[in-house]
Amino acid sequence: MPVVLDCRCVEEVRAKRKKRHAVKVEESSQLMIRIQKVVYLYRDAGNYKFWGEFYVAGELSIEELRPHLFHGEYFVPEKVGIPALVPESRNDDDHMLHELESIEIADASPYLFTSSELINCFRAANASGWFSGPF
Question: Could you report the per-residue pLDDT of 25-53, keeping only the tens digit for each?
């Protein structure tokens, strides 16, 4: 069953992403776009961890996202358009909250969001409620 995303900006981001899909590493270098790798993780109640990553174009820090996180620390990835890391076989230790682990400079790579798009998605998800609507 496909995941339904609640963040309205996700559709805009997807449309922009289709246009950018053709952007290759050399084009990113020519434009001097800083690419950053965002590492996030899912930690269940038993402290088992699963990591994921995606790339963002532009300057970004965890501190810029922190005001839009649940309790300043957690988020629901489907609400901002990134894949959840929850294992397929769920148990009582599982929940939907994920954490931002780090944001670091990366080699040029196809990116999922610009930094402002990502901040806007986090802002919209927080405003609508991290636990409201379909995931």
Answer: 445 444 578 999 999 999 988 888 999 99
**H-run or E-run covering 103:** strand 98-105
> Both tokens of residue 123?
């802002």
Q: Are 113 and 13 in contact (CB under 8 A)?
A: yes
pTM of the complete model: 0.74
Cβ atoms of 79 and 7 within 8 Å: the answer is: yes
Nearest to 53 by CA among 6, 121, 120, 103: 103
Residue 130 φ/ψ, nearest 5 degrees: -60, -25
Q: Of 126, 124, 127, 121, which Cα lies nearest the Cα of 17?
A: 121
